[in-house]
Amino acid sequence: MPTAVPVQLIGPDGERVATSARAMPSDADLVRAYTALVAARRLNDQAYALVRQGRLAVYPSSHGQEACQVAAAQVLDAADWLFPTYRDTAAVVARGVPAGEVLVLLKGDWHSGYDPYTHNVAPQATPLATQLLHAVGVAHAARLRVEPTVVLAMCGDGATSEGDFHEALNFAAVFRAPVVFFVQNNEYAISVPLARQSVAPSLAHKGIGYGIRGERVDGNDAAALLTVLGDAVTRAREGAGPQLIEAHTYRMQAHTNADDARRYRADADVAAWEHRDPLARLSTYLRGRGLLDDAGQQVADAAAEELAAGMREELFRDVTPDPADLFTHVFAVPTPQLIEQSAVVADEQSREGALR
After folding, report:
1. Catalytic residue status for 251
2. How many C-beta atoms lie closer than 10 Å to residue 193's C-beta?
């Protein structure tokens, strides 16, 4: 059964929680997570700026949820798979995918981003919960092949209201697929609060009906996330079947830049979460332990700025689209209809060229 209180190792004040019996991650893992947190925050800020400059069409920010993003990527081995949602750009980048390749999807570029097989990261899914079924399929295939692969599938609280979520959990449980379902509960499915979605004691409790172990964790505590997610990945890898982790966090910014969050939540509710910021929390803890100083902060900031500079360079590059690409990657063998449509477009292009 999930605990009544989410697992927490570092409190909002940056101090070690004395009542927690769970082991802390290593100092090296925490420093690594902090560096990634700084980069993730800078990624979110830079992406929002690029939206305002017209270089991105839309951006779903994970500001405030960066600890979930970083931990999800950090607990996986190279051969494991990550299945992200549209809001998990920071997790995809933390996994090693170049930010420029990730963001072209949100720019509207034709190729929609990165090669999933290069870093074992599935395409970011916009439809809620559909990627969970794909994740279970990959995990089931790995089990049949007797491979040590674990799949970590990310979703939000809104996805738990979708039928795909329940189908994925049921299949994974029956076939003991090595998949970790990671629910980032940020309390809103766009404008719908959690209380209007579920009256269960927690979202982690939803695993009980399927025979899946559920656990709750403070989603703004990077240390707790590394421990809880790391343990879940280990259990799945050792044959214990699927795991369900619910991280309690908060979406500090609007659903996307096209959303006005003030229409459905009060500024006071957002302000109440400001002192729980995952970045400040881990920074305070590391400085208190002597694991972070001004020089270390400068190194982390410099790496984050390098990331932001690369994003700007990639997204400021103008691309001249070729209309023929509309037909190139639809089917391996073009259908008669595609061939006909491609010929029409080619004819129009040739006529335009003749008129110039």
Report:
1. yes
2. 13
Q: Which residues in 167-180 are b (16+ Cβ under 10 Å) and which e?
A: ebbbbbbeebbbbb
Show the domain range for 354.
322-356
Helices 163-174 and 130-144, axial angle in degrees (round to 10)? 10
Compute the mean pLDDT over every residue in the chain, rounded to the nearest whole number.
Answer: 95
Mean local confidence (pLDDT), 262-290: 95
Residues 214 and 348 in one domain: no
The pTM of this model reads: 0.93
Distance CA 214, CA 244 (A): 5
- Per-residue tokens: 305: 């700025």
For the packed helices 27-52 and 278-288, what is the interaxial angle rounded to 10 degrees? 150
- Token pair belonging to 83: 């299945």
Residue bearing tokens 């044959």: 239
| Catalytic residue list contains 140 | no
CB of 123 within 8 A of CB of 116? yes
How many structural domains are present in the chain? 2
The catalytic residue among 111, 264, 275, 289 is 264
Order the strands of the 81-83 sheet from edge to edge: 81-83, 151-156, 179-185, 243-248, 213-218
Q: Which of 41, 255, 276, 281 is catalytic?
A: 255
Per-residue confidence band for 353, with pLDDT thresholds at 50, 70 and 90? confident
The string of pLDDT tens digits covering residues 134-187 is 999 999 999 999 999 999 999 999 999 999 999 999 999 999 999 999 999 999
In a shared domain, residues 255 and 295: yes
Does 86 participate in catalysis according to the annotation?
no
The pLDDT value recorded for residue 329 is: 81
The active-site residue out of 41, 251, 276, 281 is: 251
Tell whether 116 and 261 lie within a shared domain.
yes
What is the three-class DSSP state of 132?
Answer: helix
Cα angle 266, 270, 276 (rounded to 5 degrees) comes to 160
Indicate whether 303 and 335 sit together in one domain: no
Do 176 and 258 lie in one domain? The reply is yes
Nearest to 139 by CA among 129, 131, 148, 151: 151
Residue 94 lies in a domain: yes
- pLDDT confidence of residue 123: 94
